[in-house]
Amino acid sequence: MEFTFLKKLNEVKDSLENSPVILRNPEGNSVEEIYEYQKVFNQGLPLPKSLIEYLFISGKFCPLGFDVVEGNYLGLRKYYDKKLEERGVKIERPFMIFDNFEGESFMFVYLDEGDDPQPWNCSVNEDYDSEDNEIIWKVPHPTFSDLVNALVDRAIKGLQPW
Prior knowledge:
162 residues; alpha+beta; 4-stranded antiparallel beta sheet; 4 strands; globular
């Protein structure tokens, strides 16, 4: 696979565990698993390239601070779909969750925003809403690769992700 957006993560993936804040190196998803996510989350259409690169490098285990419960994207989506429904929130566009926080909020990308989409936060509990009481709000990084690369830089410097 050729890496366009997450070259830095690909270059350091086998040495990240040398950072004092990283427990182990990332573990990626198989091509077959990535195709399954395309089918389930995006009606068979290709996922954004930056997301594919991320999944291939560290989709099963990401040492950068993203929590997806051992790479169980399908189970995580099922859990949050139920929580969104309970809160009365409907996300109309195709999306994929890439981080879970305490089962009360998550980060995701819309799958129809090109190869390097804007990451978003979503709260399923009002106590986790944004400071402006928003249920869905932009992550302060303009693209998914910008967010991941910032976390790689923090890990290389020995800093905690959040």
